[in-house]
Write a structure and sequence with these properties.
By secondary structure, this protein is mostly helical. The protein contains nine helices and two strands. Helix 1 packs antiparallel against helix 2 and helix 2 crosses helix 3.
Length: 139
């Protein structure tokens, strides 16, 4: 088995503790699956815990909490890559996806003089999405 850096071992342990399958971890870190199996076993009880709402949980546990509105992957990136605090990462919904056809229809509805409540109901868009499309030119 080849030499493995401490950084890779730590990554394996963190991913293993979070419940990521060994095959996925090996592929993501570009290491042999046997290396993941060797080091991943040691991490089960040592998963990193995150504090929010006066509770301490792993990201997997937070993902399953009713106050969380995003996936584990989104949580991880918001906290580790973007530096968000845990409560903000848990409670901020992902951006609303609206198709181009719906955007055009909402824009036309504004031009036709429809009221915000009717636009939101007819096209199933949020208040902020409807208003953001009000001033935009056709796509």
């Amino acid at each position: 088995m080849s030499e493995v850096s401490q950084e890779v071992i730590d990554a394996i342990r963190e991913l293993s503790a979070e419940g990521i399958p060994a095959s996925q971890t090996a592929q993501g870190l570009s290491v042999d699956i046997e290396v993941v199996k060797q080091y991943g076993k040691k991490a089960k009880s040592g998963a990193k815990r995150y504090q929010a709402y006066d509770e301490s949980k792993t990201l997997r546990e937070w993902e399953n909490d009713s106050r969380c509105c995003v996936s584990w992957n989104t949580l991880k990136h918001r906290i580790t890559s973007y530096g968000w605090n845990v409560e903000r990462a848990l409670s901020t919904p992902c951006r609303e996806f609206v198709s181009v056809a719906t955007k055009l229809a909402v824009r036309q509805a504004w031009l036709d003089g429809l009221k915000i409540q009717e636009i939101m109901q007819r096209f199933d868009v949020s208040n902020s999405m409807a208003y953001s499309l009000r001033g935009k030119q056709a796509l």
